[in-house]
Amino acid sequence: MLKPDDYGKTDFLQILKSRCPDQVADWNRLNSTHNTLPHNYLEGTTVLALVYNDGVIIAGDRQATEGFQVGERRIQKVFKIDRHSAIAVAGVAGPCFETAKLFQVQVEFYEKMEGISLSLDGQANYLSSLVRMNLSLAMQGLIVLPIFAGYDLKQKKGRIFKYDALGGRYEEDTYYAIGSGGKDARSTLKKMFRPDMSEQDALTAVVEALWDAADEDIATGGPDLIRKIFPTLIAITEQGVSEVSDEIVAGLFDELVSRLG
């Protein structure tokens, strides 16, 4: 529960640390015991984003590996942050998901406290600080590398932000992909990208990029036609965040298979 002197503050994490320290992850304790942790945490992924004429597509596969075997087939790697932004996370599953959840809460908390939405640049800057908080764990292999994308209502366009393990924030004007299959996905996006792409063309490019990443990278999951598991695709436009249905994604992969065949 907020106390009177908490009002006027917009950093949810700092309030949580001061009022409920037991609810905040003890990073120092985790760092000190890292060498005793089992090395079977979930990792391996491909996430990407692509700007098109009406906004931006952000996407990710659904598979996570546990050592040399499949750990999860239906894991979610793309999360809505607010009405016009979303995040996709690559790296070790636990820290990635905690970072995404905390980011969601902080943006929602800011809006409730201030009565206005946090700007896209403000969100991108705050995410940079969250990634930086994970630095000591990243140095030990527990890496969090997100892609943040959204529709900028002031600039009237989709924007993409990428991050390094130190929390450095960089903007990409066209496309970006990261994760174990990121290099293969970027190669496909480079080949297929062109200015003023329609949403259909953008979805086609994203699907092919994820297909190529899964084809070359053993840790990236492609479409599972038997279990009906498909990558997550989210379109962000001036109208807001909209997840592309599995039926549409399945149709895109069917078209791709027909074209490649």
List the helices and strands and how they pair.
Layout: H1 12-19, H2 27-32, E1 42-43, E2 46-52, E3 55-60, E4 64-66, E5 69-72, E6 78-82, E7 85-91, H3 93-114, H4 120-133, H5 135-138, E8 144-152, E9 157-163, E10 169-172, E11 175-179, H6 182-192, H7 199-216, E12 232-237, E13 240-243, H8 246-260
Structure explained in plain terms:
With 261 residues, this protein is an alpha+beta fold. The chain has 8 helices and 13 strands. The chain has helices at residues 12-19, 27-32, 93-114, 120-133, 135-138, 182-192, 199-216, 246-260; strands at residues 42-43, 46-52, 55-60, 64-66, 69-72, 78-82, 85-91, 144-152, 157-163, 169-172, 175-179, 232-237, 240-243. The strands form 3 sheets. It has a 5-stranded antiparallel β-sheet, with helices on one face. It has a 5-stranded antiparallel β-sheet with strand order 6-7-8-9-10. The chain has a 3-stranded antiparallel β-sheet with strand order 1-4-5, with no helix packed on it. Strand 8 (144-152) and strand 9 form a beta hairpin. Helix 3 (93-114) packs across helix 4 (120-133) and helix 6 packs antiparallel against helix 7. Mean pLDDT is 87; it is low at 26-40.
